[in-house]
User: Fold these one by one.
Assistant:
Number 1:
Amino acid sequence: MPELPEVETVRRGLEPAMTGQNFIAVEQRRADLRFPFPPNFADRLKGRRIDALSRRAKYLLADLDDGGVLIMHLGMSGSFRIESLAPGLFHHDRSKDPAHDHVVFQMSGGARITYNDPRRFGFMLIEPRATLAEHKFFRDIGVEPLGNELDGALLVRLFDKKKAPLKAALLDQRLVAGLGNIYVCEALHRARLSPRRAAGTLARKNGSPAPGAVRLASAIHEVLEAALAAGGSSLRDHRQADGSLGYFQHSFQVYDREGEACQTPGCNGRIQRISQAGRSTFFCAGCQK
DNA sequence: ACACTATCCTGCAGGC
DNA sequence: TGCCTGCAGGATAGTG
């Protein structure tokens, strides 16, 4: 499921059930997901308190009280489910998909948190907090697109001289961290920029950001903020940690809308689908230049 | 250095 | 009904 808005939505859902609480029990039901679990994974966590739950790009980071960090990535199909025996706080329903419930955390506050991941592209690792910035997953990671750092000028700098199409450049986590296939398509449409355009063409001749670069930075902010406000997008029945569904998928302008009329005012185009770098790109050639 | 592709894995939709 | 193919929100290693 998860791009930045979905991962952030998951983080917000998990926070009250995890932060400040201890792992009472950890059940690891198989040896690996995308990677093998660390040695003694369950024992390593048991008894530890989570001091903070944060997010970097699409990674969830649980700071442990022994200086370690539990790194969690949802891959394509990972999700968390929170249940509690405490009445009224959470749903307590059985998993519809127990075959893919791979990890269960029992927290001291009473929450039972289950990680489910049919495709097993997700993973969990434990690394020292002190050297996390140098870890291979984080060493080369790009700018967080929420907040003020990302603007037209920065996009121009990041994309300088790049011949790669905008679609590929925006998906590159080393440049901007957290965008995935959906929100890249949506942001480009919102900015009226073609996904096929070379990324290095967003600058004016003097190097200052062209209007398109400024529009793109704004579009990224807007689409991510709107998705966050909607609780993310729920495709293929993906849910938030509390069981509720995000609804931003109803606001998609292009993603998975091949053949539909473009909604941009004054545009008579239709949404088309092309393949770039092995992934589907949805866009309107009428208004995206 | 850069940019494709193949790949990991399972489920689901669509065609026949 | 079943079987097959292709595709899916990610990210990496390998290739040219």
Number 2:
Amino acid sequence: MTRSQIVSIAEKIIEMFYHDFDEKDPFKILISTILSQRTRDENTLVASQNLFSKYPNVESLAKAKPEEIYDLIKPSGMYRQKAERIIEVSKIILEKYNGKVPSDLDELLKLPGVGRKTANIVLFQGFSIPAIAVDTHVHRISNRLGFVKTKTPEQTEEELSKVLPKRLWGPINVAMVNFGRNICLPRNPRCEKCPFSKECKYHNSAVD
DNA sequence: AAAACGGGGGC
DNA sequence: GCCCCAGTTTT
């Protein structure tokens, strides 16, 4: 598959499945992204709303005790870990970064509970900085469509960065997640609804 | 490289 | 009941 073919399909995926996010506050994006780890959107949303209704900013969260927010964030799962990390992150942001979330990959990666995927989501959504956050959806779909041939998400991030122009880095995450949730499912993809099945390596070989 | 964290929804 | 989910950290 040529580079221009890949870019063309990527642009179509974005056109069909990208939607903008209304939340632009980097701190709220950071916290809700931590809550979203290994968690469905619906549960993440409930947990975020619960949390921010009582602790609306970095100052109030930095003063909270983990036990106080267990019940608020419980719908997102792994609530003990997440509670401690969220409060620790808030303290660090407040004390070390003067209350402002850093817009720098290396600084974000130092925060507890923040790995490569979470950090890149914050960079793109919170700061409009081009970043590819390779989650299971992006990894799976990139391989199925033949954009890359990789074993790990890290390799996918690297290869995808080489192939796609920077302007697509942010939007392709969001678009592939929506595409993956609705059509290109992990186990039983709805290929009959997929606009790319004709040129899809996975669909035409039936091997993952 | 594998385990552990974890509630909720789909089947 | 079993499997999976915008992962990260610890063993």
